[in-house]
Amino acid sequence: MSEAAETKRTYKDSLFRMIFQDREALLSLYNAINGTCYDQPEELIITTLEDAIYLGWKNDVSFLIQDVLNLYEHQSTRNPNMPLRGLFYISSLFRGYLKENELDPYSSALLKLPSPRYIIFYNGTQGEPDRMELRLSDSFIRKEDEPCIECRALMLNINYGHNQELMGACRKLYEYAYFVQKVREFLGEGLIRDAAIDRAVVHCIEADILKDFLSRHRAEVKDLFLTEYDEKLHERTLREEGRMEGIEQGIKRGIEQGIKQGIGQGIEQGELKKAKEMAAAMLKDGMPPDQVKGYAKLSDEQWDVLLKSLGIIE
To answer: pTM (2 decimals)?
Structure first.
């Protein structure tokens, strides 16, 4: 692939990167990981790669502090090739470092370079341990005890409930994990994607979770989160869960009414139950009734029954 072609790569920002591009938040994350107490955000030298620079490779966050080149990458899916990508990223960052500091790699003198440190923040749904080391050498077809080149990446699981000590030391990381978890919980309750994100935003603002950030960037957060979310996969999962619940209820009724008829009724009633529960929760959160009715897809009769059960109408 030509250099010109590579510089045309596009990059969609992530919510993680948007939060931690703030120097204070980034320094807090660095301190939490390294057990340090730096309190001068201006000391950070941000070196995040931009599109159309260094062959178009771009990482989430990288910065220099105390002669350490920190490369932070966020992943919502597990990718065993992250060390290979890290090799490309670090090479590009070193190239920029040499240029900015007017260092000549062809010099006869030994050049002094910052030490690289590569960390991946994982929050996918596939179960992973709190900490895991990924190595470039694992990709090598021919294994050697001491390969001539290596790139190690530390993968940290930042899903809610994991790495609690780290979360306790970095409030912004905890709040990010909490927000993502809330979106997933509301999706699991049957809300459609847009409604789940809206409800999670409202819930977190009221709970003082990323309050200022979500209040200022609500529309951007929604857009960013949508790009990170695999809608088709999740909807397929929800359909399967709803189908299983309906089949379970249908089988119980099928003992008296016939298996075939019972399964059909169980599926229908299971879906209606989920719709009613979703609508009730959204109404309690203060969402406009007309909007809730559209999300829940209830008939006029079902809607009236729900409103009466909640005491909204008589």
So the answer is: 0.68
241: nearest Cα among 204, 271, 215, 196: 271
Amino acid letter at 232? K
Enter the DSSP assignment of 112.
P
CA distance 53 to 65: 22
Q: Are 199 and 191 in contact (CB under 8 A)?
A: yes
Burial of 40 (0-12, 13-18, 19+ CB in 10 A): exposed
The region that residue 137 occupies, defined by phi over 0 for left and psi between -120 and 50 for alpha, beta otherwise, is: alpha
Query: Running along the chain, 314 residues long, what does each successive block of 10 average in pLDDT?
Result: 34 73 90 91 74 42 82 88 92 89 94 93 91 96 92 96 95 95 92 88 94 91 69 50 56 51 52 69 70 72 79 74
CB 131 within 8 A of CB 154: yes
pLDDT of amino acid 245: 57
Per residue in 127-152, is it b (16+ CB within 10 Å) or e — as a string?
A: ebeeeeebebbeeeeeeeeeeeeebe
CB 200 within 8 A of CB 209: no
Q: Where are the domains of the chain?
A: 3-169, 232-296
Q: How is residue 56 annotated by DSSP? A: G
Q: What is the pLDDT of residue 236?
A: 53
What pLDDT does residue 259 have? 45
- CA 7 to mean position of chain CA atoms: 26
Q: What pLDDT is stored for residue 271 in this prediction?
A: 61
Question: Given this model, what pLDDT does residue 242 score?
Answer: 55
d(CA 45, CA 30): 13
CA distances from 288 to 162, 190, 226, 291, 294 (A): 36, 18, 22, 5, 10
